[in-house]
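To illustrate the input format used throughout this study, we show a single complete record. The first block contains the structure-token representation of the backbone; no residue identities are included at this stage. The design step must infer an amino acid for every position from geometry alone.
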């Protein structure tokens, strides 16, 4: 819809918005006319059709009517994100895809991530999903940098590959349909049947032993074997509890440039997938020379030794920063 509005003949012939523009936008996006003269005037003050479209699609009304609609199965569409890229999203996915559709997926994590990116960096996106953080990285490190994105779920990987290809990013965004782990093996990736949160997929070494799941076999590899010379500057990882296994297979990669790491900290999934507590995951990273900090807003704050019991949520985002190995 943003593309349709921005390319209208009227927007090319004049600047500013008139009542006709606003009424047309309301009809197209919300399926109704402005509720009052005040609303009409307020939206005319937005100045451009692009701004009008963004405002209407950011409204609670639009999200309630369209973005939160229940689809019985995956429905993939392409949308413009980050004012630059075309991205394939699944309207059945009410989490990552809808955040990307609103152009604001994990805003605090994204802001921190951007703050650590520099032109020419090497970035690892582990658990890339549909590619939000890979696209953010591509925008900020540019073609002189390198991104390695890992996504083992077959359908998600396929759409991620379309996004990367259609944006002409394959020269420096490298995709891997693997799960990273502590050994080369075959794993099962599992997700809820007809799930509206495919980003919650998790790996197991065998059948998950739980009803109501769909599964696919995937190849697992050690990062240090797959990319023996990789020297990342920044790592984002969200692999639903497999993080300790990933880093056990990536010790050499961590040792080269001591990358900053943006990680999920999810005690329930850590126990389920890796057999570790949050404290054990943090302790493991400390043996590699990393300290763990809670991400609050877009900034790392207090140092963590375990999951913060006063946090009030079942999972948190944390930052691992190199502090040197203890002697």
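Output of the design step:
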């Amino acid at each position: 819809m943003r593309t349709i509005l921005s390319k209208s003949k009227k927007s090319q012939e004049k600047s500013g918005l008139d009542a006709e523009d606003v009424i047309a936008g309301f009809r197209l996006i919300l399926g109704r006319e402005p509720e009052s003269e005040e609303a009409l005037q307020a939206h005319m003050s937005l100045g451009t059709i692009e701004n009008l479209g963004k405002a209407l699609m950011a409204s609670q009304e639009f999200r309630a009517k369209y973005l939160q609609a229940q689809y019985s199965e995956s429905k993939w569409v392409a949308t413009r994100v980050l004012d630059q890229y075309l991205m394939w999203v699944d309207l059945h996915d009410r989490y990552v895809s809808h955040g990307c559709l609103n152009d604001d997926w994990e805003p605090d994590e994204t802001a921190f991530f951007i703050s650590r990116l520099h032109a020419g960096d090497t970035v690892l996106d582990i658990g890339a999903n549909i590619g939000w953080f890979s696209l953010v990285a591509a925008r900020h490190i540019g073609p002189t940098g390198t991104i390695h994105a890992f996504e083992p779920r077959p359908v998600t990987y396929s759409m991620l590959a379309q996004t990367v290809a259609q944006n002409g990013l394959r020269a420096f965004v490298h995709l891997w349909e693997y799960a990273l782990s502590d050994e080369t093996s075959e794993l099962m990736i599992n997700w809820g049947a007809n799930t509206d949160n495919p980003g919650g997929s998790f790996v197991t070494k065998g059948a998950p032993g739980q009803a109501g799941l769909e599964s696919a076999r995937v190849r697992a590899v050690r990062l240090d074997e797959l990319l023996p010379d990789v020297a990342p500057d920044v790592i984002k990882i969200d692999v639903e509890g497999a993080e300790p296994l990933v880093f056990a297979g990536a010790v050499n990669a961590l040792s080269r440039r001591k990358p900053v790491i943006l990680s999920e900290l999810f005690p329930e999934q850590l126990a389920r997938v890796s057999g570790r507590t949050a404290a054990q995951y943090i302790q493991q990273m400390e043996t590699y020379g990393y300290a763990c900090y809670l991400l609050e807003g877009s900034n790392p704050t207090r140092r963590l030794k375990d999951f913060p019991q006063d946090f009030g949520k079942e999972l948190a985002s944390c930052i691992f920063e190199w502090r040197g190995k203890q002697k």
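Structural context for interpreting the output: Confidence is low (pLDDT under 50) at residues 1-13. The radius of gyration is 22 Å.
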